[in-house]
Amino acid sequence: MTQGSSPASAAARTAPQSNTSAPAVRIDGRRPDQLRPITIRRDWLDHAEGSVLVEFGRTRVLCAASVTEGVPRWRKGSGLGWVTAEYAMLPRATHERSDRESVKGRIGGRTHEISRLVGRAIRAVVDYKALGENTIVLDCDVLQADGGTRTAAITGAYVALADAVSWLKKNGSLRAGKEPLTGSVAAVSVGIIGGVPMLDLCYEEDVRAETDMNVVCTGDGRFVEVQGTAEGAPFDRAELTELLDLATAGCAELTAVQRQALGW
């Protein structure tokens, strides 16, 4: 944490809301095309080179970026850096307590899947050569889950990564003139509920969705990953296009929140 700052004083940023007149049909009163309140608080931890508490409504994820000089053995001597991610949930992040995976003695398939997703998403905007032989590990821990934990993790992890890169620059650990970040990345969920496409699903919406999708986009609107499943009923091409349009608009709003939080 920077000197003189604290979680209580860290700037909170809220996503701008659309002014369209879509009907308010959702359980929390939002329009179908409306994000939940989005808050990003930087410098949440004292020791991490970058840290963020990100909130998508009642979903809260703590993202920490840790810098290590050097790279994994298979990367040594390449002149290239490495960025990876780990995702986990607190035992009582959900309605009922779940056992810690460390106690179970194995990491669950969902945890592996989301960890890989966060890593892939973040690496899409990293220049390994500019990073040099440094490793950045992003730890994303869900404090409270109300839907969209993986998308919140990606959105928050990017901001933590940006602060870690700034730390590397200030400490002279990067070659002059090199910029490891080639852009930004954010993610949001979309789905179809009762035949209506909706943005940024909370848990109660997610479990009722006929179609559920997670979309990762760069700050300039390109797709990094699209994960979509027909949970209750198949969807057609027109519905897919509508969901992707909804997601890209949502990611654009999230990008604006990220930039505001970073002071860019």
TrEMBL record:
Any Pfam family hit: RNase_PH_C
Q: Where does phosphate bind?
A: R110, G148, T149, R150
Domain Exoribonuclease phosphorolytic spans what residues?
34-164, 184-249
Gene Ontology MF terms in the entry: 3'-5'-RNA exonuclease activity; tRNA binding; tRNA nucleotidyltransferase activity
Q: Does the keyword Phosphoprotein apply?
A: no
Q: Which NCBIfam families match?
A: RNasePH (TIGR01966)
The text of the family note is: Belongs to the RNase PH family.
Whom does it interact with, and what assembly results?
A: Homohexameric ring arranged as a trimer of dimers.
UniProt name for this protein: Ribonuclease PH
Query: Which lineage ranks, top first, belong to the organism behind this chain?
Result: Bacteria, Bacillati, Actinomycetota, Actinomycetes, Catenulisporales
